What we know:
Number of domains: 2
Helix content: 40-55%
Structural class: mainly alpha
Amino acid sequence: MKFNFHFGKKKPTVTKLIVVGITLSTIITTLSHCTGVKEEKIWDLVDEVQRQLPSNIVRDIILLDPQKIERRVIRDIDKAIADYERLTGDDGTVRMLPPRYSELTVDERVCYTRECKSLGGEMRLTAPWYVSQ
């Protein structure tokens, strides 16, 4: 009796990478020609969207291309610089931004009694640069 058990993420096959890569490249090239938007900008959009999703084959295709990785690094650096400039003043001193307050609604799955519901939802103070999920 033979068991094929693998730990971790399964790597996609080469043929699947090629088929999805060709299909995605064709779609992006067609969109670029129809809309007049540069292909690099569309690839950047696809990369940013897939970063928010769980691991998928598009991520593997983008990570195999050094030019797309370089563009991702440049975007991340530009975002970090913009965040730094937003948090500092003109003279380079750090501005104290007030924390953000957020309150969620009551979670009915966890809080089902009248007393628990009267307490309200989850409240939190977060740093101004924190992006909640």
